[in-house]
Design a protein that fits this description.
The structure is a single chain. The protein is of the alpha/beta class and about 525 residues long. It folds into two domains: about 300 residues, no CATH class; about 130 residues, no CATH class. Helix content is about 60%, strand content about 10%. A hairpin with a 2-residue loop joins strand 4 and strand 5. The longest helix has 22 residues. The N and C termini lie far apart (about 85 Å).
């Protein structure tokens, strides 16, 4: 065993270890240094108000946050541990599954490299969202399903079903993982043999049982979460023609997976490059799992806006397919002493470095400002939502004591915010998940299902305005909300490293007429 492990360690060429080290360094730096995003804070509020379901998504992201923050404290790094776990579990399972499927440790190392340098992994999976538990259990589902058939261990379908159910507790698109596994069972000879026995069906039953808390919660709330997500995904009509929408969908996938990686995965899924040792069951499982989410969301995207991250489960089996093909492309069996093809190796290294450079410049626009100036700095990235909250926090600490002293409810007076994500961020800053809510006129969210503070017990309303949508002089001094009238008390301006300009405005209740 020791000699075998030593031989496997030597199978990792230095260039592969170097790229993996660079990838890990970028992820760790982002995990520890990036400010919390409002969406993350919103899910943290879920972890402080645990339920069997929520309006926006299933509950597992909140359930996973809770033990970490309870045991390790209140910090962004701790809050993001489920996301770090999803990246690490994905990398470990990618290595072992590719190693088993292709019979070489080097294929496992390539799988880790492919997975960890996908932009959607680099950009998203150290930021804790419902995608984090979805990815953990998607990897586990494919890993166990492959082993159940290839290693003739049908009892593993029980654990496979449990993992698939937990993936559904993470995010609804996990239903396509279940669908992909079932289709693979139907179209492969080994899979049909499995369906003749009880084990896959018992696994499917366990997946359903694991998902039952969400079904029960939706039943109690008139199926509100199912209806919202279905409408959010496929029912919204758009003015653009289907071909334009299709091109936008494809462009989104090239952004989250890089054009060359997406095309190489598609090429590998058809057997191009001849992956070594991949059985009929393995090819059916991984190719179906790769194409099904892309085709379903691509079709839905012809008539509705489709989020680029929605088919993300496709990139789990896609990673395994590409790892085998890349291993063969780089190291063909006829090549002496296993040396890589120099031209292809250089192309792979440059592609990985380009991906790492791009995503880290988006993470840390401060770097590019120092090197190339503002003209070359990425403008208004998604991460801009993480900036400026330290100034909001300072203003809240300054303003709240006087407002509480003047209010009949004192320190129990409520705070409402202009949208659900910002409300989560304010709740995080104040460590007051029960005190903060979203205004009734904001987009529907879980806040609308929780009991709301009576208008007379509110003492502060916070809204934000982006410079792209409004000039500072046009920010309203007086606002009318369902919760009453409000007047501007103070304003916080944030100029962010990605060159976005945003204002956070604090409003206090207007006195009734005649007072």
């Amino acid at each position: 065993m020791f000699l075998e492990q030593m031989r496997e360690a030597r199978a990792f060429p230095p260039w592969l270890l170097t790229l993996l080290a660079l990838t890990l360094a970028g992820n760790v730096l982002a995990w520890l240094s990036l400010g919390l995003l409002p969406d993350e804070a919103y899910y943290w509020v879920w972890s402080q108000r645990l339920e069997a379901g929520y309006f926006d998504h299933p509950p597992l992201v909140g359930w996973l946050m809770w033990p970490f923050t309870e045991l390790l404290g209140h910090s962004a790094a701790v809050l993001r541990l489920p996301a770090v776990l999803s990246w690490l579990v994905g990398a470990v399972l990618a290595y072992d599954l590719a190693r088993r499927a292709y019979g070489q440790a080097r294929a496992g190392g390539l799988a880790v490299l492919i997975w960890s340098t996908l932009p959607i992994v680099q950009a998203g999976f150290h930021i804790v969202t419902p995608d984090s538990p979805l990815i953990i259990f998607t990897w586990a589902t494919y890993y166990l399903a492959w082993r159940a058939v290839e290693e003739r261990r049908p009892a593993l379908w029980i654990v496979t079903g449990l993992c698939a159910g937990l993936a559904l507790l993470g995010k609804y698109p996990a239903v396509l993982v279940l669908g992909g596994v079932f289709l693979a069972l139907l179209i492969s000879r080994a899979g049909r043999h499995q369906l003749a026995g009880p084990w896959p069906w018992l696994g499917a039953l366990l997946a359903l049982l694991a998902f039952m808390p969400v079904v029960a919660w939706n039943w109690q709330h008139d199926w509100i979460s199912f209806v919202f997500q279905f409408g959010h995904g496929v029912q919204r009509s758009v003015a653009a023609d289907p071909w334009t929408m299709l091109l936008m969908f494809i462009g989104g996938q090239m952004a989250v997976a890089m054009p060359w990686t997406l095309l190489a995965m598609a090429w590998a899924s058809f057997g191009a490059g001849g992956p070594q040792r991949l059985s009929g069951w393995g090819r059916a499982l991984f190719a179906t799992g790769f194409w099904l989410p892309l085709l379903v969301f691509g079709a839905a995207g012809l008539t509705a806006d489709s989020g680029p991250n929605w088919p993300e489960t496709a990139y789990v089996p896609g990673t395994i397919l590409l790892a085998g093909a890349l291993n063969r492309w780089l190291y063909p069996p006829a090549r002496a002493r296993g040396r890589a093809r120099p031209l292809l190796l250089g192309t792979v290294v440059l592609a990985v470095l380009a991906s790492l450079l791009l995503i880290n410049l988006l993470r840390f626009p401060h770097w590019l400002q120092q090197v190339a100036g503002e003209d070359m700095t990425p403008k208004r990235t998604q991460l801009s939502q993480a900036y400026g909250w330290d100034r909001v926090d300072a203003e809240l600490r300054r303003v709240l004591p006087e407002l509480e002293a003047a209010h009949p409810a004192g320190a129990d007076c409520g705070i409402i915010v202009g949208n659900h994500a910002s409300a989560g961020m304010v709740a995080w800053l104040l460590n007051a998940p029960q005190r903060v809510g979203a205004t009734a006129q904001s987009r529907m969210s879980q806040y609308h299902l929780w009991p709301q503070t009576a208008p007379e017990n509110l003492c502060l309303f916070i809204d934000k305005y982006d410079a792209e949508a409004m000039r500072r002089e046009d920010i309203p001094v007086h606002i009318r909300l369902p919760e009453g009238g409000w007047r501007q008390h103070s304003l916080v301006e944030t100029r962010n490293p990605d060159l976005s300009l945003r204002w956070y405005v604090l409003y206090v209740p207007e006195a009734p007429d005649g007072e």
